[in-house]
From TrEMBL:
Residues 16-100 form the H repeat-associated protein N-terminal domain. Transmembrane segments: none annotated. This is ISAs1 family transposase. NCBIfam families: transpos_ISAs1. GO terms for biological process: DNA transposition. Pfam families: DDE_Tnp_1, DDE_Tnp_1_assoc. Residues 111-346 form the Transposase IS4-like domain. InterPro entries: ISAs1_transpos, Transposase_11, Transposase_11-like, YbfD_N. GO terms for molecular function: DNA binding; transposase activity.
C-alpha cells in the first residue's frame, strides 16, 4: 500500500477504519471503513444514489487502490446499500463529531451554534415515517457540528439534550426555536459551559405571558426609542422585499418572578415588519438568554440562527438532493445524512475557489487535484 499521507486526510480515513463492523468478520468480503470512505468520495464528486456511487467507485478503482486494500474489489450498489443499512448510526455520528472537533482544533469554536430539525422527506415509506434529524450548525465556522435522529418532529425535545452532550460548545451561544424552550435543555446548555438564546412561545404559557406583560408595559411607558444597549433596529431591502427589524432587550429582571427558574440574564422582544408583493406582515417574537446581551447582540444572533436553514438545510436539499434520496433500508437514510454532512463540511472549508456547493462537487469529480485539496484541508 502506498503512503496515504500525501494524498488524503489521515484523520478522516483512520476514523472510518475504526468504525464498529456488525458483520461476522470471517464472512466479510469488503472492508466497512473503505466502503464508507468510497461513499464519502462519491458524494463529494456528485453521486447521490447507490448506482451512481458504485459507478463512481468503478471508474476510480485504480485511484482508490493507491490507499485502500479493496480486498473484494468495488462493491455492487446493493452491497453499498446493505452495509450502510447495517452500520451503527450512533457510532457513525460519534465518529463524525470527533472528526469535526479535530478539524476545529486550531480554531476553537465560538459564536452562535444554531440547533434546528430537518426531515428527509423521501425516506418515508408505507412501513416507516420519514427520518427527522436535529442538526447543530456553527455559524462563524460554517460547519455542521453533529446531528441526532428522532422518530418525529415532536421528539426534538428529547433529542436536543443528547445532541448537546456530543458537542464541544464551551463559550458558544446556543440558539434554539420555541420547541427547545424547556428547562432541561436550558440546564444542559449551561452544563456544557455555554449560553443559550431561545425563542419563547405559548408552549410555555406562564413564561410567555410574563414576557408579553413586561414588554407591553414597557412600550406603553416608552413611546420613543433611541439607539442604546436596550434598543437596536435594522432595515434592508433585497429582491423587492423590505424588512424593518427592531429589538428591545433588558438585563434588569427584578420584576420578573420566573427568571430564576430559567437561569435568565436577558430578555428580549423583536418586531419584524416585512413588505413583499405590496403586502405587509408584522410579528413579534420573544426571547430569553442566559447571557448578558445588548439589543444589537440579540438581533445579530437571531439573524445568525437562520444559517442552519440557509447554509445547511437548504444546501443539503438543493445541492445534495437530500429530500429526493429514497434510501430506506435499515439505517441507510440516517447514515447517508451523516455522510452528506461530512462532505458538506469538507466543501465549506475549501475557500480558494469561489463556487457554490453544487459546482464544487462537480469540480471534485472533474479534477483530482481539487478533490485532494478539498480533502487535504483536514490534517
Amino acid at each position: 500500500m502506498n503512503d496515504r499521507s500525501l494524498l488524503m486526510p489521515m484523520t478522516l480515513l483512520d476514523r472510518m477504519m475504526l468504525l464498529n463492523d456488525p458483520r461476522q468478520q470471517a464472512k466479510c468480503t469488503h472492508d466497512l471503513g473503505e466502503v464508507v470512505f468510497m461513499t464519502t468520495c462519491a458524494l463529494l464528486c456528485g453521486a447521490d444514489d447507490w448506482e451512481s456511487i458504485q459507478f463512481f467507485a468503478d471508474t476510480r478503482k485504480d485511484w482508490f487502490k493507491q490507499f485502500l486494500r479493496l480486498p473484494g474489489g468495488i462493491p455492487s450498489h446493493d452491497t453499498f446499500n446493505r452495509l450502510f443499512s447495517l452500520l451503527d448510526p450512533v457510532c457513525y455520528r460519534e465518529m463524525f463529531c470527533g472528526w469535526v472537533q479535530d478539524m476545529l482544533i486550531d480554531t476553537p469554536l465560538s459564536g452562535v451554534v444554531a440547533i434546528d430539525g430537518k426531515t428527509a422527506r423521501a425516506s418515508r415509506s408505507s412501513k416507516q415515517q420519514a427520518i427527522h434529524m436535529v442538526n447543530a450548525w456553527a455559524s462563524q465556522a460554517s460547519v455542521s457540528l453533529g446531528q441526532h435522529k428522532v422518530d418525529k418532529k415532536s421528539n426534538e425535545i428529547k433529542a436536543i439534550p443528547k445532541l448537546l452532550e456530543q458537542l464541544a460548545i464551551k463559550g458558544c451561544l446556543v440558539t434554539i426555536d420555541a420547541m427547545g424552550c424547556q428547562k432541561n435543555i436550558v440546564s444542559k446548555v449551561i452544563e456544557r459551559e455555554a449560553d443559550y438564546l431561545i425563542t419563547v412561545k405559548s408552549n410555555q404559557k406562564t413564561l410567555h405571558k410574563e414576557l408579553v406583560r413586561y414588554f407591553d408595559h414597557y412600550w406603553e411607558t416608552h413611546k420613543q426609542d433611541t439607539l442604546s444597549e436596550h434598543f437596536f433596529e435594522q432595515q434592508n431591502e433585497t429582491h423587492g422585499r423590505k424588512e424593518h427589524r427592531r429589538c428591545w432587550s433588558t438585563m434588569d429582571l427584578s420584576s420578573l418572578s420566573i427568571a430564576t427558574e430559567w437561569q435568565v440574564q436577558t430578555i428580549a422582544a423583536i418586531q419584524s415588519d416585512r413588505i413583499a408583493n405590496e403586502r405587509g406582515r408584522s410579528h413579534i417574537r420573544y426571547f430569553i438568554s442566559s447571557k448578558l446581551m445588548t439589543a444589537e447582540e440579540v438581533l445579530k444572533a437571531t439573524r445568525e440562527h437562520w444559517g442552519v436553514e440557509n447554509q445547511l438545510h437548504w444546501v443539503l436539499d438543493v445541492s445534495f438532493g437530500e429530500d429526493q434520496c429514497r434510501a430506506r433500508q435499515g439505517y441507510a437514510a440516517e447514515n447517508l445524512a451523516t455522510t452528506r454532512q461530512i462532505a458538506l463540511n469538507l466543501l465549506k472549508q475549501e475557500t480558494s475557489v469561489k463556487l457554490g456547493i453544487k459546482n464544487k462537487r462537480k469540480a471534485c469529480g472533474w479534477d483530482d487535484a481539487y478533490l485532494f485539496k478539498v480533502m487535504g484541508l483536514i490534517k
